[in-house]
Structure formats: structure tokens, C-alpha cells
Amino acid sequence: MGMAYFPVFTFLFMVCLCQSDDRLTHAKPLLPGNVLISDSGVFAIGFFSLKNSSSSSYVGIWYNNIPERTYVWIANRDNPITTNVPGKLIFTNSSDLVLLDSTGRTIWTTTNNITAGGGETAAVLLDSGNLVVRSPNGTGIWESFYYPTDTMRFIAWKGPNDPSSSIFSMGGDLISDLQIVIWNGIRPYWRRAAWVGEMVLGTFQGNSSFRMFQTIEYTGDGYYIKVTVSDGSPSIRITLDYTGMLTFRRWNSSMSSWTVFEKFPSSTCDQTEYVPTCKCLDGYEPNGLSFSQGCRRKEELKCGGGDSFLTLPTMKTPDKFLYIQNRSFDQCTAECSHNCSCSACAYASLKNVDATLDQTRCLVWMGELVDVQKFGSTFGENLYLRVPRSPVSKKEGTVLKIVVPVMATFLLLITCIWLVLKARVKHQSRKVQKNLLCLNPSNELGNENLEFPSVSFEDIITATNNFSDYKMLGKGGFGKVYKGMWEGGKEVAVKRLSKWFCARDSGV
Length: 508
What we know:
- The protein is mainly β.
- The protein has four domains: 266 residues, Agglutinin, subunit A (Orthogonal Prism); 95 residues, 3-Layer(bba) Sandwich (Hepatocyte Growth Factor); 32 residues; 71 residues, Phosphorylase Kinase, domain 1 (2-Layer Sandwich), CATH 3.30.200.
- The chain contains four helices and 34 strands.
- The longest helix is centred in the last third of the chain and has 44 residues.
- The N terminus is likely disordered.
């Protein structure tokens, strides 16, 4: 997409009511002991030496209204003046600013190569802290914001009292221009996740006294990050220090010092340079006994189908992605699913970019996922992780582990209760049948539905001739057995239980 990120910072600071000269011209160079002050007295530029090295002098810009001397830009940071007498900052005929030492040797210079005509070129110090070289018609031809320091365009100091360039720097990703990176030499040390097209990158609420906003602005020649603070806020300073830490500070007037209210990387897990010792994504496990060797897949992808995508919300998308333009969401996921090496993909619609540019953003990752982590509920984007099959989440697995044993125990209990009740019903049925057999002749069985054929007592009396002795076939311990004859000539044997048996079974 060809976007470039250049940090541009707009601050609202305490205002001085004094009037001071804020410009340098051919006729008025900057000499030792002279100080140029911005129109509202916010910033000043002049010669200075650091506390630990009075033999080296620099030309730089600092906060004018803050008692603790704080530098925001140094012209000759990598080449201090080492002579006993500082030099001077002058204009050349080609509209270049040149810093000379006392011997006339060039220490630092701009490279404008523009011959002024019909007027005078001037360098003006603005209330934003930006030193701007303007042509006679007022056009800006050079700005200090575009050149290295630790506060505006980020190249860290080498040490707390050494302003020379260190190995830590910060700027846009050289490959895609979609993310901001802090570099440790040539290696990425920390990065902000790939841009998803939002105009407001973030809001920092230090306390109830101020709020800071980060927004994206398009100026025709690229996209810029703009940082602003609310009215009445204290002075705000954003620096990249010699340890590689990006810090956000506000001036605490009650303590007369700078207070850090935000910093990046916020933890070891936030560093791109090292393998994070945090946690693995779903479907991954530690590559060894700990996280020090990173994570590996629990189940390898199988090329040829059967894979799916697991949606991971509010994620910091990984580094080392392949940026594919002019793709819809379905086309983006297809790019990943059709490539056996693809591990994940992410998609965003860049609705806020210039309408003449591609407004789609398809990112795919091949192989290992580097520097990926879970954000909070308000940041990050969906990362579509390619998995062999739709996995059961840990929560679902935990629920199944609890529910299945409980259900099995419940079903077993119900079965046992049913068997006990069935046995009791059967026992009661048999007891009722036995009691019916013990009824005296005045009782009637009626037509109750028993487990044997229903025969009335009158029919038994008739068949046995009222239990006549000559019908008796034999006698046992529980009663006498009689021969009977049903209607139709069918012979039967009838056993009449004794009164002793019936009384015993009834508990009498």
C-alpha cells in the first residue's frame, strides 16, 4: 500500500508570556551564550554541555519552562565540539544550516542546496519544538522533526549522559509499513501489531488531569501518527531510552520531575526479540519442559483437506507476515487453506485509508508464529489459526469431564431404584395371591387378574363335592389334596391349605 509512518507529535504545554527572538538568519547566526526561544516561550535552542563532559559541547533544543533541563533534539549528537571554545551555527548561501567549531571545521550541516533569491532564508523555532528552515516565500525546506533524536524521530541515546546514537531505534516496518518497530541494531526488539485501519490508535488516561490521544492522519504524502493531549494538560514527553524502552512521561510540577505513565515493552512476553515465556495458543504446547523453547503444535497439519480455522479474538497478530492485497475475507482464508505451509491468517478492511488505495488487508503466516499474544478485551483483532480439526475448547472439555460421570452415576442410581421397586411389587403380588388362597368359603375371589386362572370358590366346592372325604387323594404338611371334576369331564387336583399354615403366614 506504500504507507509510511513518521511520528509527528503535537503537545499543549505551559505558556510563557515573555517575547523572545525565535529565528536565525544569515545576518544573525547562533553564537555561544545566545539562545533562541519559541514564540510562546515553550522551547529554546542554544549551545550546551552535559554534566559529565564539560569539554564537549552541542547545539540542541530543550524545554524552556521546565527547571530540569530536558533535551528533545541535538544537532551534532554524534559529533560534539571538543575545542575549548564552542563554534557557531550559521546559514550558507545555499540555505544550509552549518555548525562550525572555533577553528572553522564543519561539525554538522543540513543539505538543502537551495539558493535563496528575493529575500532571506530563516530558521524558526516553533512552539512544538520543531526547528524549521523556511525559504523567503515561507515554504518549509528542512525540519528537525525529520532527523534522529530520542524524542521526536526515535533513535535512543547511548547512555543517560551520552546523546550519541545507540543501537536502539524506532520507525515503520521496512517491509510492509503496517507496523511500528523498535530495532535492536537490525533485529526487531518490540513492535506494535499490524495496523487494522483505525484512525484512533489509542487513548492514555494518566489520571483525571489529562488525556492523551494517538491518531492517524493522511497528509497526501503518507500517513502520520499524531499525538495530542487535552487542554490544561501538563507537559508530555515520549522517548526511546538507551535500554530500548519506549516511555511516556508527564511533568509532575509538585515533584519537579518526569513521571512515567506508560511504557513499552511492558513485559518480557511483549518483546519480539526473545521467545516469550508466557503461554501457548490453543492447539499448541510448550516445546520442552518450559516455554523457553517456544511452542509446538499438538497435532501437525495434514495437507490435502480436513483442516479448519479456529477464531482467536483480541489478538496481537504475529510478526513476519505475508501481506496480500486485493483479497476478500473468503479469498484470504482460501490463500491460507490452499497452502500447506500456512499456519494462520488475519483480515481487515482499511475503510479509513485513501479511496484510491487498496482498502483490504490480508495477512498470512507461513510456518512458526512469532511474537503473538492475547490482548485485553478492547484491543487486537481476530487471528484465524489453522487447525487439523475443530478442537474442543478447554472449557468444553472440562464440562464434559464433569457432566459425563455425573450423568452415569445418576442413571445407575435410577436403575437400582427401579430394580428394587420391581422386586417389591413382585413380592407383594405373590403375598396377595397366597392370602387369597387362605380365604374361608364365605370370601369370594371374584374375577381379579391374578397370575393363575380365575376359579370361583363355588366351582371348587362343586368339583370336590364340598371337600368330601371320599374325594381326598392324600394329606401333607400344609393341607389335604382332593380330586375334582370340572364341567366337561376334566379332572383336577385341589389342595386345601390347613388353618395352621394360613395363620402362620399371616403372623398370627
